[in-house]
């Protein structure tokens, strides 16, 4: 199985697609909203962006975007649709793929199905950015996304429970399930000041360094702001309805810091598939 999948991966485009997983230790910290607005921020820079809803249990990207996708990854896995047929255009400059429960089946695909899926997924290699909004917590499909991405953005808030859960998922990522070379970045959401974001981040970064011996990069905070809640109610991202707001400025700063990260030996979609399909 691995040999045949490898042959397909070697035929993929050499275009380096940056693949970012946005995750969190608990729900309700604004992870999905951040993923959506990051996609818009990249699109506003002229990047070709695809946002994948990887929250298999509580997918809600389509709700926040007020989009009703006709198809999802399940149709690709079942050979009912090709990858390009399930990509949904949005009015915000990026494309969207509904996840449903398609990815959860991939671990059990046979050789022929695996080859087909790898060939289909490789069609995404002509984009610049793929952002995967994972589910919250430590489910296997979440960790599978995290293991395969070039960068993992862990979202937390200043709440003690969110901080504890952020540390918990970082601990699992770095010690139990995947290689320790994963590139973990920290975003602190819903802060009232930059100082609060820095204080929360320093606490997490210090604990991770002390007890796990791992370096986490703090890449920014996002302010608590009325424009965020208004955007959710209107089903229009805050990067669009209020592009000069503090949260919008924060998203642009976070993207700028991500872009300064070296992709190293990553081959974009090829590397993602190699890691994602790897048997533990």
From TrEMBL:
A single GO molecular function term of this UniProt record: ATP binding
Nucleotide-binding as UniProt keyword: yes
Keywords, comma-separated and alphabetical: ATP-binding, Nucleotide-binding
GO biological process terms held by the UniProt record: negative regulation of cell division
InterPro entries named in the record: CobQ/CobB/MinD/ParA_Nub-bd_dom, FlhG, MinD_FleN, P-loop_NTPase, ParA/MinD_ATPase
CC terms in the record's Gene Ontology section: cytoplasmic side of plasma membrane; cytosol
Domain CobQ/CobB/MinD/ParA nucleotide binding: 20-238
Protein known as: ATP-binding protein
Source organism per UniProt: Treponema saccharophilum DSM 2985
